[in-house]
Amino acid sequence: MLPDFPSSSQTQRPWRKRRLFALGVGLCLLAGLAALLVLANSSLSLNVDKARSNLELQLQQLTGQAVSVAGETSFELLPRPVVRLSDVRIGSADDKRAMTVTQVVAQFNLLDALVGRSEVSRLTLIRPELDTRQTPVAAPSEGPGGQDTLPEQAQVNETSDMLTSYLRSFFERFDGIRRVELRDGLFRFQTGGHTLSSVNIDLDWPGKDRTAELAGSFVWNGQSAELNLQVSDPAKFLEGQTSPLRMTMSSPLLDIGFNGNGAYGNSATLEGRLRVSTPSPTRAARWLDLTSGPMPELGALQFETNLNFAENRAKLEEAKVNLGQTPGRGAIELRFHEDAKTELTGTIAFEELDLAAVGNAIAPLPTNILNLQRRINWSFVQALNMDLRLSARTVSIAELQLQDLAATVKFANGTAILDLGDAVLAGGRAQARFTLPTESFPPVLKGKVNFQGVDASVLSNTLSNGAMRLSGITGLVADVEIPVTDWQSIVQGNSATIDMTIVAGAAGGLPAIVPVENNSQEIALQQNSSPVSFEKLEARLTNAGTATWIDALRVETATGRFDMNGVATMGDESILLDGAFWPEPNQVSDTSAAFTSSKPIEFNIQGKWPTPELKIAPRSTPM
């Protein structure tokens, strides 16, 4: 007997019931959701004022400032609950530091909004604007033209304190809001008339114990920049406790990277690895408004260092520096003072150093006659106090090469001091010291140079570009005094006294005084002569502008002694010398010698260099 199977109608009945049940549940949910939406829309539309007041209260708690709304308030539930406030002012009505915002957009959680809670999860400030240019920072003083001016340091301090207050109150109250966005922000500063514009910054902070990230872009002093800052423990960071942090900023003029630890309490601290790169330190400093005047353009700069910043003191240790393609290593310390100049101390060692390039950066060589009167700016000396010790294996000064240089550069109260303590120069030793008080007018460079045991051929080739050939061992002491207002003052006002001695040498490449054969009373100038050897050359020179007075020049040779004095001028290349030749006694006693007279042969040399004329004539001035 076969079993009984249910009929097809009996089989389909349970599935039909299930579909009807699911359909009924879906309709109920849809109806419930529709009811909730209608209720929420009607409720929230009736409570826009309440939502607005709640948002104003949260903004007040977030900024620590009074908040007022002058424009319209609107609400959207879908696709996400959003409240928009127009024409918002953060700050009291009489506060000139108040921030104005074109529109504040607050986003809420959908379920929170449905049950009547209005906790902001995302806040967007569209076109926030802050203007500190009219902030009264100190009692005004009357400036030129009867206009009121404000002390610059007071302006800087007031603006800094105001921004610090804004940031501190904002971050200390930042709670619950997971994201804050600034769009198209504009901030005008009283100091320097600078503007921070096109500010588009996002701050993500999921919670007090989570990593906060600030990222975005802005335009400062006409250059755009991108910023990214990550703080691992923002709560500790704001309380003055150490927190890991990472920061990068990139712009056409400056790239900065930092990776380490920091704290932001009563005073900021940083400790970690710092990287800085700029194609021009001068333009980067001007972009950051860190200088009040022109700075020397020394070339591109890259450096990496261990940074330790605390209590207004920055220590840069294990620094790797590359300045103008010149690598170096060292350590630097900076001390910042509120009411005094910044102090810089440290030591840097270079493999190679081009002092001529540094000098040309400070006082560029004139390219035409108009550039002669271009004022040399020494404001960088007056901007800070500095004590920097430099060393270099090789130093170039034009064509002159020094080795193993040890030097000190000091800026103290507007006075610059360059002390070249010791260096190897052409087999001998070289020392020099220069002092320049830049705040006096005109600024006058004074210095002393000392060479001992130096190969004379190196000096003559450098100074005469190979036209004059000297050899021997040189000792030289020079005192210089040069006004450095501009190149015209340098050329016309320079003065120096030089004492020089060369022993066991020879002179070539210049007209030589030679005896005339078979004539005991005549000597002549011979052009393009072969080098003339001498036992000793002594000279005392006085330089003033383009003229050089040869106070005394004595040359001792195997045939006799020459004594000369006179003047040479660079402008017209003229020379005027009075001299006398004293033959050696053994030359006088030798009847076969060209010279048989024991009396000196007096002469003068006059004309254009390098072809002057020699005449046998009494000296116009005694030797």
Automatic annotation (TrEMBL):
Region of interest (Disordered), ranges? 131-152
Listed under GO cellular component are: plasma membrane
Q: Which GO terms describe its biological process?
A: regulation of protein targeting to membrane
> InterPro entries, alphabetically?
AsmA-related
The protein, known as: AsmA family protein
Gene source species: Aureimonas fodinaquatilis
